[in-house]
Structure formats: C-alpha cells, structure tokens
Amino acid sequence: MRKLWGGAFSEGSDELVERFGQSIETDLRFWEEDVLGSIAHATMLGRTGIVSEADSALLADGLGRILREGPDGLPRDAEDVHTAVEARLSELVGEVAGKLHTARSRNDQVATDARLYLRKRYDELAADVKALQRVLLDLARTHREATMPGYTHQQRAQPYTLGFHLMASFWAFQRHGNRLDHARALANYSPLGAAAVAGTGFPIDRVATAEALGFAGPMPNALDATSDRSWALDGLHVCALIMLELSRMCQELVLWSGNEFGFVSLSDRVTTGSSIMPQKRNPDMAELIRGRAARAVGNYVTLATTMKGLPLGYNRDTQDDKPCLFESLDLTRDSMRLTALMLETATWRTDAMRRATKRDFSTATDLADFLAAQGTPFRTAHETVGKIARACRERGIGLEDLNVATLREIDPTVPEEALSVLRPTQSALSRNSQGGPGRRAMAAQIKRARALLARKGFRDPV
Fold it and tell me: What is the distance between the alpha carbons of residues 163 and 139, in angstroms, rounded to a whole number?
C-alpha cells in the first residue's frame, strides 16, 4: 500500500494494520477538495519563493490535470486520498511532486478538505430546505381555511386549519436553515498552513491560501486548527435536528394516511405494496425516514463520544469523523427531498378532516372565552363549560348540537348567544392573535413567510 511515510521504519506494517487504517474509499468523497487545496498550496509556495515558480507551475498544472481526469484516475492502493493524489501527481510530473507537501501536513490538509466539502454540502442542504419550505408554503396557502382537529397529548384540543398546521413546519425549517447558515460560517475558516500541530518555519502566506479557497480567513491557532472537530459536530447536530423534524412530520403522515384518520392519501410514487395483502398501500418512505432519524442522532453521539476524551493535537481517532458525517449528510438530503415529494404529491382529504371536528368538544375553550368576555372569571367559566360538556356527552350530542332549549335545560345562566361560538370552522378562522390560524393572522404569517423564502439564506430564524 502506498504511503507518505516509512523512512524510519525497518519493516512494513502488518496486512491487518494496513486494512484497518486505510481510509481511501471514504476519503474519495472529497478528492476534488483535496486537489483544489493542493493547487492553492502549490501556488502559494511559488509566490512566496518556498519553491521555484517553475516547480509551482508544474505542480499546479499536474493537479489541474487530476481535476480533469476525475477520481477514477487516482490509485486505490493508497493509504488515503492525500497519498493517492500525490502518487498520481508523481506519475504526471515526476519527482517534483514531492515538493507539494512542503510546509503542510496531512493534519491540516484533511481538516481543510473536510471543511471545503462540508461547506459545499451546507449549500446543497440549504437549497433543499428552501425547496421543502416552498412546498409547505404552497400547500398552506391552498389549505389555509381547511378545518381540522388540533391535538395536544394526542387528544382533540382545538380546531385549526391544515394550512396553519403546515406552516408550523415551515417555521421549524426556517430555524434549521438559520442553523445551517451559522454552522457554515463557523466552518468557513482555513486550517491550511497549520501543518502538523505548531505551524511551520517556512514563510507561508496563510491568508493567500484562505482567500484562494474562499474561506473567511485562516484559523488563528495552529493547534486548534488541527485539533478541532466542532465543525463536524455542528454538521451532525444540524442534520440530527432536521431528521428529528422530518421524523415527526413522517409520523403524522403515517397516522393520517391510515383509515383510522383518513386525512391524507400518499401517492403511488412514494408508497409500496405488500407481498401477501393485495390491498395494502404502505407509507414505507415515511417509516424509513422516521427510523433513520435514529442514525442521524447516533452519528452525532458517535463523534461526540469520540471527541470527549481526546487531548489537543491530531489524534487518529478523528479519522472516523467522516463516515458518520457523510452518512448524515446523505440521509438528511434524501429525507428532505422524499418528504417534499410525499407532501406535494399527496391527496389531502380535507372533508375527512372537517368531519373529524364534529362532536369532539374542541370548541369548549371558545365557549369558556365567550363567558369570560362577558365578565365571568375564567376559572368559573372553565368549570361551567366542563359541566356543559359532561351533560352533552351524557345526552350523546356535541357542543355544536346544542340548541336554546337544551342549553337552558343544562345551564340557564349561559346566554343563548354563546351558541354562536360553537362551530369548529368559525372557531379556527376567528383566532386572529399573532401566529394563530385566523384569516388575518394567517395572511400576515404567509406574507412574512413568502418574503423570507424569497431571500437568499436564512438570516432571520423567524
């Protein structure tokens, strides 16, 4: 196996050691970032006179050819992607390739590569968040007056609308987008030039390489630059939070698509059948996202547990930061896209949602509020409405079934005007406090959401 070291060793590594320590297949994910970082480094070496301009140009030309060839041109019998790139460079430009590693280490090199790669993936995830938000907003506008039951404790609570429910997820993803922006900004500093642990005696220009690679600047401490993996933990944390949000949404899709609810029908494109029961339409993608959220959480815990006992300075343990990071990034991307597809291709059974609000006593709070507005202390009103609800249940009717005669029979102190607040749709659409499902409140919420969606990035979390 090709390595970038070995001169001080009198015998080769055991085959098991080589296999256990090899990371080339994982590292190939950021082969392009490795080459781009090397081009910036080679160019800087020439400009500072650390190597000749001719050698610098030869190195950059060879690396440019590797970029054009793609990853298939890199040897696989290498310890890692850095070794593979340098080995291929040696084949292209000869012995001068050995000068590329002047004034740097694999320690700062891998940290640079991974930050570049993560920065690119953050941008992709941010675009996916915007796409999912767009689906949520479009559906919310369409269904902003579609009444449905609202739940607390998984029990009927108060009526609201499907549009209002979907907008709750819109705002959750606005915060996740803000987290992505923040995590990207924190990762956007260059470790390149920190070398192994304490910098280098060569007159390098870390600002130049940072600017060439689009970083905000170099990290100010070489030890921190090679030791830090908080940027990876930030990425894993954001992925875990997004997956938790998607899992909750998918749990609702699983429940709502069942006959017990019947609120939504998922399209053939995102459901599967049974090998034995011909009638089945299984919400498998929603279930898989719900299940795989655990892997995203586990990946964060894995790296956090790895890092908790490491002293400062590079430690080989951190080689394993990338497999869990790559998995979480892929899983989060695919899950967001699948969720958007499930939502936009679904058939929303708004009639079933509206029927579900009948006789569920979810307008009880409206009746209590009505009495409170008439001057009754709210606690007294609460008690009164509780007794009315119990009496209705005993009669087998809902609050909306009350008429003047029945209301007087149950509680003659309650004015008949109270009957006007017991219709679920009216209840939902009348709640116009900021953030509520009422017509005016939803119009304001949708207007703000449209403005935020049109902006680049997620500067405002709400």
Answer: 7
Of all residues in the chain, the percent with pLDDT exceeding 90 is: 88
Phi and psi torsions of 8, nearest 5°? -90, 0
The DSSP-derived string for 130-193 is: HHHHHHHHHHHHHTTT-EEEEEETTEEEEEEEHHHHHHHHHHHHHHHHHHHHHHHHHH-SB-TT
d(CA 281, CA 268): 8
Q: Contact 160/365 with Cβ under 8 angstroms?
A: no
Neighbouring residues of 446: CB distance < 8 A, sequence distance ≥ 6: 137, 140, 141, 144, 167
Positive or negative, the CA dihedral 206, 209, 211, 215 is negative
Long-range contacts of residues 382-391, Cβ cutoff 8 Å, at least 24 apart? 384/411, 384/413, 384/414, 387/411, 388/414, 389/361, 389/364
- Given a contact cutoff of 8 angstroms between Cβ atoms, the answer to whether 84 and 2 are in contact is yes
DSSP 397: -
- Helix pair angle (439-454, 162-187), 10° resolution: 30
Question: Which pTM was predicted?
Answer: 0.92
Angle at 282 between CA 277 and CA 286, to 5 degrees: 165
- How confident is the model at residue 13, as a pLDDT? 62
pLDDT digits (tens, 9 = 90+) for 196-221: 999 999 999 999 999 999 999 999 99
**Model pLDDT for residues 289-339, shown as the tens digit of each residue:** 999 999 999 999 999 999 999 999 988 888 889 999 999 999 999 999 999
Average pLDDT over residues 447-454: 97
Active-site residue list: 153, 274
* CA 246/CA 336 separation, integer angstroms: 7
Instruction: State the pLDDT at residue 16.
Output: 73
- Which residue from 104, 360, 349, 116 is spatially nearest to 226, judged by alpha carbons? 104
Angle at 277 between CA 272 and CA 283, to 5 degrees: 30
DSSP lists the bridge partners of residue 272 as 282
CB 234 within 8 A of CB 187: yes
Which one-letter DSSP state was computed for residue 37?
A: H
Domains of the chain plus CATH, in order, are 15-102 (1.10.275.10), 110-145+162-194+220-351 (1.20.200.10), 364-454 (1.10.40.30)
